Amino acid sequence: MEILKSYRKRIDILDEQIINLLRQRYDVIEEVGHLKARENIAAVLPERIDEVRENAVSQALAKGLDEAFIRNIYAQLIEHSCAFEEEIIKKMHKKDLS
């Protein structure tokens, strides 16, 4: 399908950018996880979860994207991010106990 080649290339480039942005996001989450462990802050802060999700939905709607789709993506992203922070906090607390 030669006719699709240039489109596929553009999508591949965008996918790489998305992955790079996710890596950067998780680098920040790792820093936050360490900070929360040091300061005894809970990994899951419901008000922040709501803020992140609603901010994403608002931005998505402004750009003509589907609200349900963005809510779904961000539900998964937030769930995984919180689990990652919890893992960091547990590891740091174990380390402090040893």
Compile the SSE list and pairings.
Elements: H1 5-39, H2 46-62, H3 67-97
Helix pairs in contact: 1-3, 2-3
What are the key terms here?
mainly alpha; single chain; Chorismate Mutase Domain, subunit A; 98 residues; 3 helices
Written description of the protein model:
With 98 residues, the chain is mainly α. The protein has a single domain (27-97), classed as Chorismate Mutase Domain, subunit A (Up-down Bundle), CATH 1.20.59. It is built from three helices and no strands. The protein has helices at residues 5-39, 46-62, 67-97. α1 (5-39) crosses α3 and α2 (46-62) runs antiparallel to α3. The longest helix is centred in the first third of the chain and has 35 residues, at 5-39. It is elongated, with a radius of gyration of 18 Å. The model has no long low-confidence stretch (mean pLDDT 96).
- What is the CATH topology assignment? Chorismate Mutase Domain, subunit A
Number of strands: 0
Uncertain segments are none
Shape-level CATH architecture: Up-down Bundle
Terminal CA distance reads: 59 Å
Q: Helical stretch count?
A: 3
Number of domains: 1
By secondary-structure content and strand pairing, the structural class works out as: mainly alpha
CATH superfamily: Chorismate mutase
Task: Provide the CATH top-level class.
Answer: Mainly Alpha
- Mean pLDDT comes to 96
The major beta sheet can be summarized as:
none
Shape: elongated
Radius of gyration: 18 Å
- Which percent range fits the helix content? over 70%
Share in β-strands: under 5%
List the helices and strands in order: HHH
